[in-house]
């Protein structure tokens, strides 16, 4: 926990210290509390917020409101747990999610429990942001130049990826702070545009239906499950929480959880301001005809729609970098500690360029926004945000059985497991349905 304590128990060799000073997560611990705010906002308020009105249309008013508010409360609780557990062991900081898992489950089992999930979350999020960025660029092009020759979505995804081949070589979290700040500001901006423009659309007096999207019960069941995955994706940003907190300095008098928690409080207020109006107003305005990206449903004013889509592009640039940084750290750690490769600029260049190229290729191959969100939201993001922190808390803290804390944690675990089991079924159904109707010239 404390720097003094770290020095007392620090048994690392000079080589190990040099490696830690080179790795992205541990190389710079000078972040301020507001860094936590915009990193967390950037991690959470991304592609997910744009799909929330669509998710509402698949759940209906009653279930939709309950799921939205319950998800906010559960993930707010679990992010508090992670902040508290970061320095729960005196003299040690769990700088990475898998380090907390190893402390809770054991050295080997902890890696197998956490690392596969973290890899899936980071990689899938980056793929989805590739698709979102490309779709937003395409919508911007169509809005400002409606008479221009249509351009394939794949080309816009390639254009969006080009900036990441440059930004991905920034060394650590603190070096992307300005990118993350711009992304956080854009998230608040385009969320406001989305619900404000939806109000304008809603008061025009057009007929809107709030019936479920299909007349078939089976289809509605699958869509409801997919919607759960959309919401899980929107609220899941915990995969990078410990890595963000690792950049904040810590002393015995001022542990890192103080500024980190302050930043998280502000971040979650911003999340509520972004999510709830977009979800509820967007569904109110368009009903069951809303698109899986709310900005695609808006047609005017044209200049505002075009600007909002560019705001999204800026935001998902930052979101991609925030989720990619833990992957860079994981791969580079393996390369220098397990594969015994020498830390170098060339190694970093090859690792990061290859990662960006991989996410670009997959994003071009399956650019189906709605299905990706529903499937990966439950399968990948729900475990690391909804219930894995609770399991670690029960193992490490050991609250009194059947006490308040014990019951709350088990409630979150049950909800999270249900999300993990059920929502990928709906997401896969949506993914297959969208794939069948997709045209690659779109």
From TrEMBL:
<feature type="transmembrane region" description="Helical">
    <location>
        <begin position="59"/>
        <end position="80"/>
    </location>
</feature>
<feature type="transmembrane region" description="Helical">
    <location>
        <begin position="109"/>
        <end position="132"/>
    </location>
</feature>
<feature type="domain" description="Amino acid transporter transmembrane">
    <location>
        <begin position="30"/>
        <end position="426"/>
    </location>
</feature>
<feature type="transmembrane region" description="Helical">
    <location>
        <begin position="375"/>
        <end position="396"/>
    </location>
</feature>
<feature type="transmembrane region" description="Helical">
    <location>
        <begin position="264"/>
        <end position="286"/>
    </location>
</feature>
<feature type="transmembrane region" description="Helical">
    <location>
        <begin position="33"/>
        <end position="52"/>
    </location>
</feature>
<comment type="similarity">
    <text>Belongs to the amino acid/polyamine transporter 2 family. Amino acid/auxin permease (AAAP) (TC 2.A.18.2) subfamily.</text>
</comment>
<keyword id="KW-0029">Amino-acid transport</keyword>
<feature type="transmembrane region" description="Helical">
    <location>
        <begin position="306"/>
        <end position="328"/>
    </location>
</feature>
<protein>
    <recommendedName>
        <fullName>Amino acid transporter transmembrane domain-containing protein</fullName>
    </recommendedName>
</protein>
<dbReference type="InterPro" id="IPR013057">
    <property type="entry name" value="AA_transpt_TM"/>
</dbReference>
<keyword id="KW-0812">Transmembrane</keyword>
<keyword id="KW-0813">Transport</keyword>
<feature type="transmembrane region" description="Helical">
    <location>
        <begin position="408"/>
        <end position="432"/>
    </location>
</feature>
<keyword id="KW-1133">Transmembrane helix</keyword>
<feature type="transmembrane region" description="Helical">
    <location>
        <begin position="349"/>
        <end position="369"/>
    </location>
</feature>
<dbReference type="GO" id="GO:0015171">
    <property type="term" value="F:amino acid transmembrane transporter activity"/>
</dbReference>
<dbReference type="Pfam" id="PF01490">
    <property type="entry name" value="Aa_trans"/>
</dbReference>
<feature type="transmembrane region" description="Helical">
    <location>
        <begin position="153"/>
        <end position="170"/>
    </location>
</feature>
<feature type="transmembrane region" description="Helical">
    <location>
        <begin position="176"/>
        <end position="197"/>
    </location>
</feature>
<keyword id="KW-0472">Membrane</keyword>
<dbReference type="GO" id="GO:0005886">
    <property type="term" value="C:plasma membrane"/>
</dbReference>
<keyword id="KW-1003">Cell membrane</keyword>
């Amino acid at each position: 926990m404390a720097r003094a304590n770290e020095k007392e128990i620090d048994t690392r060799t000079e080589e190990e210290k040099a490696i830690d000073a080179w790795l992205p997560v541990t190389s710079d611990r000078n972040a301020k509390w507001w860094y936590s705010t915009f990193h967390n906002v950037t991690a959470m308020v991304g592609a997910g917020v744009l799909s929330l009105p669509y998710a509402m249309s698949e759940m209906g008013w009653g279930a939709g409101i309950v799921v939205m508010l319950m998800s906010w409360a559960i993930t707010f609780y679990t992010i508090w747990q992670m902040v508290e557990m970061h320095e729960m062991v005196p003299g040690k900081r769990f700088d990475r999610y898998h380090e907390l898992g190893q402390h809770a489950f054991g050295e080997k089992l902890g890696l197998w429990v956490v690392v596969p999930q973290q890899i899936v979350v980071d990689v899938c999020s980056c793929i989805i942001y590739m698709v979102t960025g490309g779709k937003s660029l395409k919508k911007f092009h169509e809005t400002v130049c409606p008479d221009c020759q249509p351009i394939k979505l794949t080309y816009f995804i390639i254009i969006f990826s080009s900036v990441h081949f440059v930004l991905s070589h920034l060394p650590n979290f603190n070096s992307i702070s300005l990118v993350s700040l711009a992304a956080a500001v854009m998230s608040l901006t385009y969320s406001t545009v989305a619900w404000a423009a939806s109000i304008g659309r809603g008061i025009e007096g057009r007929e809107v239906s709030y019936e479920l999207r299909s007349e078939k019960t089976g289809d509605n069941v699958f869509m409801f499950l997919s919607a759960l995955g959309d919401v899980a994706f929107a609220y899941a940003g915990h995969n990078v929480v410990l890595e963000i907190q690792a950049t904040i300095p810590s002393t015995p008098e001022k542990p890192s959880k103080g500024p980190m928690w302050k930043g998280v409080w502000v971040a979650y207020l911003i999340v509520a301001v972004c999510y709830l109006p977009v979800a509820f107003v967007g569904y109110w305005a368009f009903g069951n005809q809303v698109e899986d990206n709310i900005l695609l449903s808006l047609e005017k004013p044209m200049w505002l729609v075009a600007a909002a889509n560019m705001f999204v592009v800026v935001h998902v640039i930052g979101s991609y970098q925030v989720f990619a940084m833990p992957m860079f750290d994981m791969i580079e750690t393996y390369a220098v500690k397990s594969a015994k490769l020498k830390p170098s600029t060339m190694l970093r260049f090859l690792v990061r360029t290859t990662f960006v190229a991989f996410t670009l290729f997959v994003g071009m191959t399956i650019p189906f926004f709605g299905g990706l969100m529903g499937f990966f939201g439950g399968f990948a993001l729900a475990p690391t945000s909804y219930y894995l922190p609770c399991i670690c808390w029960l193992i490490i803290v050991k609250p009194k059985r059947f006490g308040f804390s014990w019951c709350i944690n088990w409630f979150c675990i049950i909800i999270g497991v249900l999300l993990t089991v059920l929502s990928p079924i709906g997401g896969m159904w949506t993914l297959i349905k969208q794939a069948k109707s997709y045209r690659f010239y779109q």
